[in-house]
Amino acid sequence: MRLVDSHGHLNADRFDDDLDPVLDAARAAGVERILVPGWNVRSSGRALEVVASRPWLDAAVGIHPHDAAKVDEAGWALIEAWAQDDRVVAIGETGLDADRMFSPWDAQLESLRRNLAVALATGKPAILHCRSKAGERDAQDALLAELRAAGFDGAPARAAFAGRPPAIVHSFSGPVDYAREMLAMGLSIAFGGLVFRRGEEASADVVPLVPAERLLVETDAPFLSPPGAPRGRNAPEFVAITARWLAERRGVEEPELGDGLVAAYDATFPRSLRR
């Protein structure tokens, strides 16, 4: 099966010692594209280094909600400058996290708004993290409100993204009606190892709703290992496990799904945004 990993943190320290073998294993598993997103200033710079000599990898730069309160104006200036780089195809990951709350809520909102503004200014889609505490949906509802306020459901997004998805819901988590609202805005939805965890059963109901051209798969490596992957360090090769789960729930053969995943990746991050 042809594969992509639309969200793999190969810029994490856990890959410093053996990145090339990790990439070789991904290639052997059928992975044709990997998007390497930053989560703070340092990791965003590292993402650019990782993809520099590897044309089948792409980078994203931005500030994660966990790091929202840790970035000064000099850091933001770097993010905004790097966002113009042609190795960068997306902005983020950004978003909201009402579960772990490593940054105050007001700081998360300010950071999200700045990331979304960079996405609109560059025409590069935002990568959205969103988590609420178990059984709650406050982060999902707040994220929907912020996207609407920023114009991601109207003319600003249509002008900036020319019909492409303006954002990707990374590692989907939330109820079905939340997914429907995101899809109505034209967003893409990516599924990762989180779908196998207790409390995330709604993901199985969301999978058939996503148009093929906006369906993505990811690992969130080195995190969120699916069943069968090492618990200590997920890696891009294991995206195949989640892809097989997607094929089963969509009732399609694996080769058909794989072709669609590659096409969806290229539609979301077209060659015009890449080297």
Can you give a write-up of this model?
- The protein is α/β, with parallel strands linked by helices and 275 residues long.
- It has helices at 19-29, 41-51, 73-82, 105-122, 138-150, 155-161, 176-184, 202-206, 239-250, 254-268, and strands at 3-5, 31-37, 57-61, 88-97, 126-131, 167-169, 188-191, 215-217.
Question: Short summary of the structure?
Answer:
The chain has 275 residues and is of the alpha/beta class. The protein has helices at residues 19-29, 41-51, 73-82, 105-122, 138-150, 155-161, 176-184, 202-206, 239-250, 254-268, and strands at residues 3-5, 31-37, 57-61, 88-97, 126-131, 167-169, 188-191, 215-217. An 8-stranded parallel β-sheet has the order 1-2-3-4-5-6-7-8.
For the structure shown, list the relevant keywords.
275 residues; alpha/beta; eight-stranded parallel β-sheet
End-to-end CA span: 25 Å
Q: Element order, helices and strands?
A: EHEHEHEHEHHEHEHEHH
**Which parts are unreliable, with pLDDT below 50 for 5 consecutive residues or more?**
none
**Biggest beta sheet attributes:** 8 strands, parallel
**In one word, what is the shape?**
globular
Number of DSSP helices?
A: 10
Query: How do the strands line up in the largest sheet?
Result: 1-2-3-4-5-6-7-8
Could you estimate the helical fraction of the residues in percent? 40-55%
* C-alpha Rg (nearest Å): 17 Å
Counting helices, strands and paired strands, the structural category is: alpha/beta
- The total strand number stands at 8
